[in-house]
Design a protein that fits this description.
CATH superfamily: DsrEFH-like
CATH architecture: 3-Layer(aba) Sandwich
Number of helices: 5
Strand order of the largest sheet: 4-3-2-1-5
Order of helices and strands: HEHEHEHEHE
Number of strands: 5
Oligomer: single chain
Strand content: 15-25%
Mean pLDDT: 93
Radius of gyration: 13 Å
Largest sheet: 5 strands, parallel
CATH class: Alpha Beta
Low-confidence stretches: none
């Protein structure tokens, strides 16, 4: 199981934000929702932005969204996760991801396991 899951006590809100797509605007929208959710929770929270599909290309180092990704990752409890299957389909590897962006072998399994553990799910 990913360390993201083990780090959050049950009393902390746990939110999955899922972006499935191919365009930069979808990832940018997901990052905005992350910031809104982080600031909206009255207590510390754990938020995972999970990117699946060709949109993983915007998680690569030096992408057009690099500054926005770094801003989100600087928020306590926030992680950005790329789907490993999508990376492979896009011709990318884990080594291509920006600093702080993690990966999971299959987003669908990551999302299902997280929901079974009580995480709330929002699809963008």
């Amino acid at each position: 199981m990913n360390a993201i899951h083990r780090s959050a006590p049950r009393s902390v809100p746990q939110l999955l934000i899922h972006v499935l797509g191919s365009d930069e605007a979808s990832v940018a929208a997901g990052l905005q929702v992350v910031r809104n959710a982080h600031h909206g929770f009255a207590t510390p929270s754990t938020i995972a932005l999970v990117i699946q599909g060709r949109a993983v290309q915007f998680l690569a180092a030096n992408s057009a969204l690099d500054d926005e990704i770094n801003t989100a990752l600087a928020l306590p409890g926030v992680s950005v996760v790329a789907c490993g299957n999508s990376l492979r389909s896009a011709g990318l590897g884990v080594h291509d991801l920006g600093i702080g962006v993690s990966s999971t072998p299959a987003a669908v399994v990551f999302l299902a396991q997280s929901q079974l553990e009580g995480w709330a799910y929002v699809r963008i």
